[in-house]
Design brief:
Rossmann fold; two-stranded parallel sheet; globular
């Protein structure tokens, strides 16, 4: 959302974050992620939540970080229309492409969190560019 705010277009979007499993529901973000975000001027105070079936109707796009989560979302999807909403974040990364996943840095060090931050930043910039250009979902 920060990228959209910087472009003065944040009022156009509503977003949320959710996981496909209940393993961390209610927990704050990993401290390493918070530290990397803080170094880049971002502040997070949210808690983890699990994806809900009503998210398919509340959001125009459902963006997954990796293929495993995309597959979980596809399995939860109630219709062909909702399946068309599901995309991988790195589809919008100029260094990613179709099928590319954001790796989970959890079992590594701080460098992995910074690398993932940069990957997500590029991807979100590409996603916002697509939204701002009126890009539609491909079937």
């Amino acid at each position: 959302m920060e990228l959209a705010r910087q472009r003065m277009t944040g009022h156009r979007y509503r977003l949320d974050s959710a996981g496909t499993s209940a393993g961390h529901v209610g927990e704050p973000p990993d401290w390493r992620m918070l530290r990397v975000a803080s170094r880049h001027g971002l502040h997070y105070d949210g808690r983890a939540r699990q994806f809900r079936s009503e998210d398919f109707t509340q959001f125009d796009w459902i963006i997954a970080m990796d293929r495993h989560n995309r597959d979980d979302l596809l399995a939860l999807s109630p219709s062909p229309e909702s399946r068309r909403k599901i995309r991988l974040l790195r589809e919008f990364d100029p260094f990613g492409g179709a099928g590319a996943s954001v790796p989970d840095p959890y079992y590594g060090g701080m460098d992995g969190f910074e690398e993932v931050y940069q990957m997500i930043l590029r991807s979100c910039q590409g996603l916002l560019d697509r939204l701002e250009s009126g890009g539609e979902l491909a079937s």
